[in-house]
Design brief:
The complex is a heterodimer of chains A (about 250) and B (about 250). Chain A has about 250 residues and is α/β, with parallel strands linked by helices. Chain A has a domain of about 70 residues. In chain A, about 30% of the residues lie in helices and about 25% in strands. Chain A contains 7 helices and 10 strands. Chain A has a 6-stranded mixed sheet, with helices on both faces. In chain A, α2 crosses α3. Chain A is globular, with a radius of gyration of 18 Å. Chain A starts with a strand and ends in a 7-residue tail after the last helix. Chain B has 11 helices and no strands. The radius of gyration of chain B is 22 Å and the shape is globular. Classes of the chains: A alpha/beta (about 250), B mainly alpha (about 250).
């Protein structure tokens, strides 16, 4: 598989009241096309900053991010960001949200929006506004809005953290089901190691700030995965150990 | 049914106020201050000969014109000031100074510039309602949550689409709040402006009733009608707040 995202020696610091805070200290890694890479790390280590740099919302102080071999210099519709807070426009209906990213002159845009609403299980809710949806449905709408523009990469920053545990699990399975059809490259930030093991092909563990890659784990299990299997649990313990948690399970 | 039960206490309070008023007039045997019933008969008299409707129509027309002009200017200007930082820092200080000036203070200038015709009260209403609407619209743009602007940026939409599908609808709830404030002030001001120099309108009716033979029944009738129409106008603006495209903002 060719390299999709190439992160090269990225550094980032923030200036805050004359204090210079080094957030990212020389990060290098590649993400292959169609790969699902999860990033875990202690809270406040700069995961979100890193994701914003890769998605193009922030520029690094030095180093570069290449996507498809081209230097990334701003966000674009080929890589859509999905965050914990969500950004489904509350003043538009589900359908209008899905249509938002599609060019006005696209001939089948209407059918496309319906198709993706159905794909995430929102058939029948196309004309509902955000405040008429549950948290899980809102997340589905956001995923559908991202997918309908046919992005190459999904950037997911703790996408399911605001949901309750059961809904989070359900959405993880939904995501896997959709990805089996759509085959996107995915970068996922999460604090939930089990979520990472459940979803990702590879897990990068970041160190505390200033952050760098501390460890990398391949997740060789076939889907559908059982996180409770001994192999998966052994991997979980190993990752938690990297994060400084000695698990007693 | 629930609404009806909630209305009971306020109806009781109004009935008590009326009763006290009636009793006080009866006890003092006032020759000038009317009883509630005299206010009712006075109102019916004016309604029957048509002058009441002329006054109401004149006041509403002035508010419509002045408020309409203010909306037409304030919304585009407020959006521009909210979006373009340079426009904000240039114009905001001026508007912040002009905003606290009571519209009543503009009356002499209004008369100087526009005489005693319809243009003066329309100008005063415009002045009174334009600033709160500019301010609210600007605040509305400034408080658009960054995550929405980011999402729009992510999808790489055109500027016009960004404006029509994100900036304007995101600001609309604040615009409506501004319009509600603006219309409230406009209604306050039209009555005051008509008291100064004109020959129609509810404000004129109040002053004229007093001057033409101490008809305090009509003075009070005018006051009550002003209150009721003001309530109605606010009710219309509340209907706007109930629209589905803006409810997200008021829901919490």
């Amino acid at each position: 598989m060719p390299t999709k995202i190439h992160v090269e020696n990225v550094r980032k610091s923030f200036q805050n009241d004359k204090v210079r805070l080094q957030v990212i200290e020389g990060l290098d890694f590649d993400v292959k096309e169609g790969e699902f890479v999860a990033i875990v790390g202690p809270s406040g280590c700069g995961k979100t900053t890193l994701m914003n740099i890769i998605a193009g919302f922030l520029s690094p102080d030095s180093g570069a991010v290449n996507v498809n071999g081209v230097v990334r210099n701003g966000p674009n519709r080929k890589g859509i960001m999905i965050t914990q807070q969500g950004s489904v426009f509350p003043w538009l209906t589900v359908k209008q949200n899905l249509l938002f990213g599609l060019p006005d002159d696209l001939p089948n845009r209407d059918a496309l929006a319906d198709e993706y609403a159905a794909l995430v299980g929102l058939k029948g809710f196309e004309n509902n506004y955000a405040h008429e949806l549950s948290g899980g449905m809102l997340k589905r709408a956001e995923i559908a809005r991202a997918l309908v523009v046919k992005p190459e990469i999904l950037y997911m920053d703790e996408p399911f953290s605001a949901l309750d545990a059961l809904m989070s699990l359900r959405m993880q399975n939904e995501l896997l089901r959709i990805l089996a059809v759509e085959k996107h490259t995915v970068m996922l930030i999460t604090h939930d190691v089990e979520e990472a093991i459940h979803l990702a092909d590879r897990i990068l563990v970041l160190s505390p700030r200033p952050t760098r890659i501390q460890a990398s784990f391949d997740v060789p299990f076939a889907h559908p995965r059982r996180v409770s299997s001994p192999e998966a649990q052994a991997l979980r313990v190993a990752i938690l150990k990297e994060l400084g948690v000695t698990d007693s399970v | 049914m629930k609404g009806l039960r909630q209305a009971v206490p306020s109806i009781v309070v109004m009935a008590v106020v009326l009763a006290i008023w009636w009793a006080a007039v009866a006890a003092t045997k006032s020759a000038i201050f009317p009883t509630p019933w005299q206010v009712v008969t006075g109102t019916l008299e004016l309604a029957r000969d048509g002058t009441l409707w002329e006054h109401i129509g004149a006041s509403l027309m002035r508010v419509g014109a002045g408020f309409g002009l203010a909306v037409a200017l304030a919304i585009p200007l407020g959006l521009w000031m909210g979006w373009v930082h340079g426009a904000f820092v240039t114009l905001n200080p001026l508007f912040q100074i002009m905003r606290p000036i009571s519209p009543i203070a503009w009356i002499p200038i209004a008369i100087l510039w526009f005489g005693v015709g319809n243009a003066s009260p329309i100008f005063l209403i415009f002045i009174a309602s334009v600033f709160p609407m500019i301010v609210q619209t600007t605040v509305g743009v400034h408080t658009i949550e960054k995550r929405y602007l980011r999402a729009a940026e992510n999808f790489g939409v055109t500027r016009s689409k960004l404006f029509l599908k994100v900036v304007f609808p995101a600001t609309l709830p604040q615009i409506i709040v501004g319009m509600r404030i603006g219309l409230g002030v406009a209604w306050l001001v039209v009555v005051a402006a008509e008291m100064i120099a004109l020959h129609s309108g509810l404000g004129y009716m109040i002053i004229d009733s007093r001057n033409a033979g101490n008809r305090y029944d009509l003075v009070i009738a005018g006051m009550i009608i002003i209150g009721l129409i003001g309530l109605m106008l606010d009710g219309f603006m509340r209907l706007l707040e109930g629209m589905k495209v803006v409810r997200w903002r008021y829901a919490h």
